[in-house]
Specification:
With 590 residues, the protein is α+β, with helices and mostly antiparallel strands. The chain contains 14 helices and 30 strands. Among the domains are: 174 residues, Nucleotidyltransferase, domain 5, CATH 3.30.420; 175 residues, no CATH class.
Length: 590
């Protein structure tokens, strides 16, 4: 047992759409003997009378359960109608009177409780939490919005996970595990470029790295990442839609849900994981209650699936993935690099069909397609490695400070603020002109000040800053309260973001959500904070004929701290940091 806080325990949680895995744990409650990957527990939870009934492998096929709840963390309009069971989970939220964040939090609470007990048994110490530094790393899709990431963090903290929990994107975690394995095999060279395709249950993420150094391994992003909702569940949806069409919509609706679930389980383990480009044999799935139909090869509750039909279904989904891979390789090559290999990771990345299809497309170009060992666990293993590289413990003579593997990333967005600038008729629109009452001079509203541009290279912990002016009315010598403020941060995904917010109806201080829907620039969040009035009183006051009373202008310094998957904010006023700063993210329904 350690005598001081000198040892680390790193827990990596791969928060998947269909499966969740935690490093070290393989004996999940009640796994079926036929499940090949019992080291991953299904992301499924059920309720009874408002309380959690079962979770993971304990959830029976007959239960009304939340499946693929993770997708609902994104704004509703993006994915709600896209995936099988997503709408069902959305309806179930109303039935159990819970929000998606509460369901995710309940599930993570159960995962965390089981994890802590597993650690206690493994280290043989009932007080292990007092004797070890604990670092928890939770993975999220790279394609997720800041809103979804923020919801994930809040749900995890509400579930009782450590407050300093860290997020890392799934493809970055997978790349860490995979490329370190390649480095140990001496198969990496300086200058090599790799495309990592993380194909999971719901999402497919693409990220590319260039090797800067091999010992120690240092890599940096060499293209803007990409992704889409075309993972394993998309294939499930296509398959069930085909069966529904084959059987007939009305007849299919009469079949019991449990029989449909059993059919989908057979498709998952008996068809989807085995089918390849070379497959010529027939496959079968059982669907109890389906009437015989010789023309459609249905007999005795069994449906026979022709390989050519399956290929059509598989090509529809894998074609979307191949397009993402093609776009990513072109992006890398446009930056003057040659892709050496495409690395397939994630559960869907272990598909034989995907590997064969990509291999046929890229072998003539000298690009190898590698299906790495442990594709199912690569994200979780990488999350643990990332946690070790960002360890909480203090370095000393025996344990020097770890060196991060990923030394640079590329921003997918431009981030900025909407400001007013001294009016210049040569570059500002007359529609943006207004009189600044404090200085009695004309300013241009709706001007964008971009703090970071899309495609710009960034390092973790980089700090962006800007000055923000706040006008305050009615603060006097005897004022003792607080004034609340909200600074809006905007983002844009265009390669060249506009120089102005293209809605001239209102100045920046009056922007509202309805105005934002018509622009290429969208509001990301509102940075909220408060300042004591006794501090504001020290600012020089001025009067305005148009607006009676005393006014004061405050100069605030807004700091944006770039994490690997998150944004943090600080505000400074009169050389002191404001105590509490909270970012309220805006739902993006575009």
């Amino acid at each position: 047992m350690p005598s001081s806080l000198s040892s680390e325990i790193v827990v990596g949680i791969d928060f998947g759409t269909t499966q969740k895995r935690i490093r070290l744990i393989t004996d999940w409650p009640n796994p079926a003997a036929t499940i090949a990957n019992a080291d991953k527990v299904p992301t499924v939870i059920s309720y009874e009378n408002g309380r959690v009934a079962n979770w993971g492998y304990e959830v029976g096929l007959k239960e009304d359960a939340f499946r693929w709840i993770k997708i609902l963390l994104e704004p509703k309009s993006k994915y709600a109608d896209e995936e099988l069971n997503v709408q069902g989970s959305s309806n179930l939220l109303n039935k159990v009177n819970k929000t998606v964040e509460e369901v995710v939090s309940d599930y993570l609470r159960l995962i965390w409780k089981y994890t802590k007990e597993d650690i206690r048994k493994r280290v043989g110490d009932n007080h292990w939490e007092d004797n070890f530094n604990l670092q928890v790393v939770l993975t999220v899709p790279a394609m997720w919005s800041h809103v979804a990431k923020d919801k994930t963090l809040k749900a995890a903290k509400k579930a009782g996970l450590p407050q300093d929990i860290r997020l890392v994107t799934e493809p970055e975690a997978a790349a860490l595990a995979t490329l370190h394995d390649k480095a140990e095999e001496n198969s990496l060279k300086k200058g090599d470029a790799f495309v990592v395709c993380d194909a999971g249950g719901g999402t497919v993420d693409l990220i590319s790295y260039k090797v800067n150094n091999t010992s120690p391994l240092e890599i940096e992003e060499c293209a803007i990442g990409d992704g889409d909702l075309c993972g394993s569940t998309r294939l499930d949806k296509c398959f069930e839609k085909y069966i529904e069409t084959l059987v007939g919509k009305e007849q299919y609706s009469r079949i019991k849900d449990i029989n449909k679930k059993k059919m989908m389980r057979v498709f998952e383990y008996g068809v989807k994981r085995c089918f390849t480009l070379e497959s010529t044999r027939e496959y079968t799935v059982d669907l109890k209650g389906v009437p015989d139909n010789q023309r459609h090869c249905i007999e005795d509750d069994t449906i026979t699936l022709d390989h050519s039909m399956l290929r059509t279904l598989f090509d529809h989904v894998f074609g979307q993935i191949e397009t993402l891979v093609q776009n990513q390789t072109e992006e890398v090559e446009s930056n003057g690099l040659k892709v050496k290999s495409i690395l397939l990771v994630g559960g869907f990345g272990s598909s034989k069909y995907l590997h064969h299809r990509l291999e046929n497309s890229y072998k003539s170009r000298g690009i190898s397609v590698l299906q790495v060992d442990g594709a199912w666990s690569s994200i979780c293993r990488g999350a643990c490695r990332w946690g070790l590289e960002h360890a909480l413990g203090q370095p000393n003579a025996f344990t020097p400070a770890p060196v991060p593997t990923v030394i640079g990333r590329i921003s997918k967005y431009s981030y900025g603020v909407c400001v007013s600038q001294p009016f210049d008729s040569s570059r500002h629109l007359i529609a943006d002109q207004y009189l600044n009452l404090a200085t009695n001079t004309y300013y241009a509203a709706n001007q964008m000040e971009w703090l970071l541009l899309r495609g710009e290279k960034v390092t973790e912990g980089r700090i962006l800053s800007t000055e923000v002016l706040q006008r305050v009315h009615g603060v006097g010598f005897f004022s003792t309260g607080e004034r609340s403020f909200a600074d809006q941060l905007f983002y844009c995904q265009d390669n060249e973001p506009p120089t102005r917010f293209n809605n001239s109806e209102c100045p920046p201080r009056h922007l509202n959500q309805a105005d934002l829907e018509y622009t290429d620039v969208k509001q990301l969040c509102s940075v909220n904070y408060s300042v004591e009035e006794e501090k504001i009183w020290h600012e020089n006051s001025y009067r305005s004929d148009a607006q009676p009373g005393k006014w004061r202008t405050m100069t605030m310094k807004l700091f944006l701290i770039l994490g690997n998957a998150t944004l943090d904010f600080r505000v400074k006023y009169r050389d002191e940091y404001v105590a509490t700063v909270e970012a309220e993210y805006v739902q993006d329904f575009s």
